[in-house]
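Predict structure. Chain length: 288.
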Amino acid sequence: MSIETGILYIVATPLGNLADITYRAVQVLRDVDLIAAEDTRHSLPLLRYYGIDTLLISLHEHNEQARAVELTARLRAGESIAMISDAGTPLISDPGYRLVANARAAGLPVTPIPGPSAVIAALSTAGLPTNRFVFEGFLPPKAGARQRRLQELTVEMRTLVFYEASHRIAASLNAMRDVLGRERRAVVARELTKTFENSHGDTLAALCDWINAEAKRRRGEFVVVVEGASESPHRAPSLDIRRLLSVLLTELPVKTAARLAADVTGDKKNALYRLALKIASESSQHPA
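Prediction complete.
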């Protein structure tokens, strides 16, 4: 394989286990003119392990805007650049969007070097439907915003995938249990491909108890996979629940609108009530 000039390579790197890297990724990292890394200190052990001594600079959320301009200019000048994140596939809840957008706007080629992804790794072992799923990244850190985001997902029928940090995993699971339902099935995948990798599946209610039972279970990096909402056999395939509630709310109180919507769709009244509250609040803030 030969490295071409003026190309931006988006290179996936291991989540934890250093052996989880492709031959092509190693060759690209060795042969490019420059590697842009989310955290150079974090990436150095990987590069040293494979004997890669390519010039390394940082590209993170605090300097990405300026770096994107600089690196696009270097690509224009004919340099080849590889972008890596701390782990997994770059740009998936990681910096890099501005650089890729700039390169494409400049008409420069952007080439993926595929490999590990925590989203796909967790989905592949969760035992939940994978034919349709939605990646939600990290939930909002504040409780109110987190609850509102989950309320918007109560009727989402695709499998849900979240990232979460150790200091918020318990609070996020509690919120999922309270908003999405105690009996909703989910899997908590922790420290994927690392020494203390663990994956545990159960109902959201049981997972909340499990995560709080031992402090070590709340350490590390998490992917949470949650089954989607059940489709009611009584619902018309094309029924827009949000629009139905919006129409009902023009004539009825929130509680009545939610009850009637539940009768029509077969969905849970509590979830529809929360969604109706949100729609009513949005309407009051933005009157016609």
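Summary: Residues 233-238 have pLDDT under 50 and may be disordered.
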